């Protein structure tokens, strides 16, 4: 066991999008603050360093998924995993964030001491425990479990003689050329993998229990009028605003006009499937309304092109059992397979599974509200970076980062050592965070109790949308339901 005697002003847990953005905001707002970014892995990128499956790409546009302070400059709004990693490396190098990494330190627990007004982080490094200390801790850990994906009950899977792969743990260099592949799932990951694997596999079949909404996203082939004629900085600002406005249209129009939106998406799907053997009904007629679960996107319609090529197919039904070389559905349909890919979802985990305690008393997520969707009720100086599920993640993460900097500057100005959210009405109506979606992974997380909760009053309410959240980040009260402590350390 070793102890780093350095006491940091801020320790950021997580070297992905959320952690990098928070580090930049901290450097700009409080340039004298000492900080480090702690991550159990040995590289930057979080999700984009972990996932290696075929076709890995963003499912949000990079003009809003990228950082506002370092605009995405490529023409395509949808980027490959490799392109995103290159972009992130550029950002951290340009702004000196790469000098603050503490890699291969897996954070196990975090305990706040009211006496010392410090956090003690218990980490594991090369098989040994190591302790780190900080005045503030940021949970930039994303929203899913890196080690344990959402388990799906697939009857007879143990009988299968071929390869069974999960996208979260894709083996490097895996060769599927000429193989028959069945991808179980219909979410964003499956929509991404189908066209990518169809290029080399002899046949790819997407097997879904229920359909998802899928829309093609056109990729510009040349610069827009704004990009050609406006100064670069102004053009980038306009393009970013255009994509934010587009997110509003794509999200709110289906909410306001669900029946019209269903018909519109169905008509687009019919047009895209012309020339293929795949029909819209039943394979692309979801039972739910758009944005009750996430709408999936296909860059330049590559998903549909795979069906038109004859290299991909789709089956909708319930698995009865799996044999050594096939999947048998309850309908009687049999799907031959050499490889099964279980794209059945992520297991949500807010806070990276870290055991949080205050003076030794454990914090139970499901019992605690989030103050302004950022700080955990009754927990001093801890900030959870939670992005959007419907909009680009980074927009929400940045709104949180801006609000956090306001609070840190307020503490410094007034000589406070800690801020602790205290809920004035714990009996208010409540719901788990992210509960606006009824996707399987969200409902599973809500029922398991791993999610914090939001309320309906004051600073405890759920997030609404980006522009309102951004306004609140800059102008909302940072003293409402907040207890401040002034202790000399």
UniProtKB/TrEMBL annotation:
Residues in a coiled coil are none
Its required cofactor(s), as named, are: FAD
Q: What GO MF terms are annotated? A: flavin adenine dinucleotide binding; N,N-dimethylaniline monooxygenase activity; NADP binding
Q: Which domain of life is it from?
A: Eukaryota
Q: Which UniProt keywords apply?
A: FAD, Flavoprotein, Monooxygenase, Oxidoreductase
The protein's name:
FAD/NAD(P)-binding domain-containing protein
Q: Which Pfam families match?
A: FMO-like (PF00743), NAD_binding_8 (PF13450)
SUPFAM superfamilies with a match to the protein in the record: FAD/NAD(P)-binding domain
Q: Which organism is it from?
A: Mytilinidion resinicola
Q: Where does the secretion signal sit in this chain?
A: none
């Amino acid at each position: 066991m070793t102890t780093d005697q350095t006491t940091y002003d801020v320790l950021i847990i997580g070297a992905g999008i959320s952690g990098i953005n928070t580090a930049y905001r901290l450097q700009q707002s409080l340039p004298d603050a000492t900080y480090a970014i702690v991550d159990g892995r040995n590289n930057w990128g979080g999700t984009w360093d972990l996932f290696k499956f075929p076709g890995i790409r963003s499912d949000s546009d990079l003009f809003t998924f990228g950082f506002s302070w370092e605009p995405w400059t490529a023409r395509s709004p949808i980027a490959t995993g490799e392109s995103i990693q290159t972009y992130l490396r550029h950002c951290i190098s340009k702004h000196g964030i790469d000098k603050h990494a503490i890699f291969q330190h897996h954070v196990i627990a975090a305990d706040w001491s009211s006496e010392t007004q410090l956090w003690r982080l218990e980490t594991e490094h090369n098989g040994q425990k190591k302790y780190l200390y900080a005045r503030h801790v940021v949970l930039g850990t994303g929203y899913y479990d890196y080690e344990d994906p959402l388990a799906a009950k697939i009857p007879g899977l143990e009988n299968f003689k071929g390869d069974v792969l999960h996208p979260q743990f894709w083996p490097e260099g895996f060769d599927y050329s000429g193989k028959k592949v069945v991808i179980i799932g219909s979410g964003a990951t499956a929509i991404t993998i189908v066209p990518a694997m169809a290029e080399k596999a002899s046949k790819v079949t997407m097997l879904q229990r229920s359909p998802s909404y899928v829309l093609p996203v056109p990729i510009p082939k040349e610069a827009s009028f704004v990009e050609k004629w406006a100064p670069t900085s102004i053009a980038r600002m306009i393009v970013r605003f255009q994509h934010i406005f587009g997110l509003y249209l794509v999200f709110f129009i289906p909410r306001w006009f669900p029946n019209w939106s269903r018909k519109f998406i169905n008509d687009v799907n019919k047009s895209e499937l012309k020339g293929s053997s795949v029909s819209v009904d039943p394979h692309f007629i979801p039972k739910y309304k758009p944005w009750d679960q996430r709408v999936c996107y296909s860059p330049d319609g590559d998903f549909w092109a795979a069906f038109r090529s004859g290299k991909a197919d789709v089956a909708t039904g319930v698995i009865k059992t799996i044999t050594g070389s096939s999947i048998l559905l309850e309908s009687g349909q049999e799907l031959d397979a050499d490889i099964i890919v279980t794209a059945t979802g992520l297991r949500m985990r807010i806070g990276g599974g870290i055991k949080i305690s205050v003076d030794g008393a454990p914090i139970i997520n499901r019992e605690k509200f989030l103050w302004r969707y950022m700080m955990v009720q009754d927990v001093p100086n801890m900030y959870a970076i939670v992005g959007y599920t419907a909009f680009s993640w980074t927009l929400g993460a940045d709104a949180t980062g801006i609000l956090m900097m306001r609070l840190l500057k307020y503490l410094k100005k007034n000589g406070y050592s800690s801020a602790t959210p205290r809920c004035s009405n714990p009996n208010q109506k409540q719901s788990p965070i992210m509960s606006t979606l009824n996707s399987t992974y969200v409902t599973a997380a809500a029922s398991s109790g791993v999610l914090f909760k939001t309320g309906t009053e004051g600073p405890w309410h759920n997030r609404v949308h980006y522009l309102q959240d951004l306004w609140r980040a800059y102008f909302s009260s940072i003293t409402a339901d907040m207890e401040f402590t002034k202790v000399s350390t």
